[in-house]
């Protein structure tokens, strides 16, 4: 299981994680990415690699 989080203070709203996540973990909420389906995360780290601001973190539980 993985814990994916977005630091809203750092997120620029570019939607890279939203557009690149293969299991659609993220949605845009108030102009920021939000892991609304975090339980679906497979730990591929695509979101962390495409985020230009480093706002997305992924931790293995």
Biggest beta sheet summary = 2 strands, antiparallel
Q: What shape does the CA trace take?
A: globular
Integer-rounded radius of gyration: 10 Å
The total of beta strands comes to 4
Q: SSE string, helix = H, strand = E?
A: EHEEHE
Average predicted confidence as pLDDT: 97
- Main sheet: which strands, in order across? 1-4
Count of domains: 1
CATH architectural grouping? 2-Layer Sandwich
How would you sum up this structure, described in words?
With 61 residues, the protein is α+β, with helices and mostly antiparallel strands. It has one domain: Alpha-Beta Plaits, CATH 3.30.70.20. The protein is built from two helices and four strands. The strands form two sheets. A two-stranded antiparallel ribbon has the order 1-4. Strands 2-3 form a two-stranded antiparallel ribbon. The radius of gyration is 10 Å and the shape is globular. The mean pLDDT is 97.
């Amino acid at each position: 299981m993985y814990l994916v989080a977005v630091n809203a203070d750092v997120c620029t709203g570019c939607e890279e994680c939203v557009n690149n996540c293969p299991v659609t973990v993220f949605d845009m909420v108030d102009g920021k990415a939000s892991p609304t389906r975090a339980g679906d995360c497979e730990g591929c780290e695509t979101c962390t690699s495409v985020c230009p601001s480093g706002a997305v973190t992924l931790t293995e539980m």
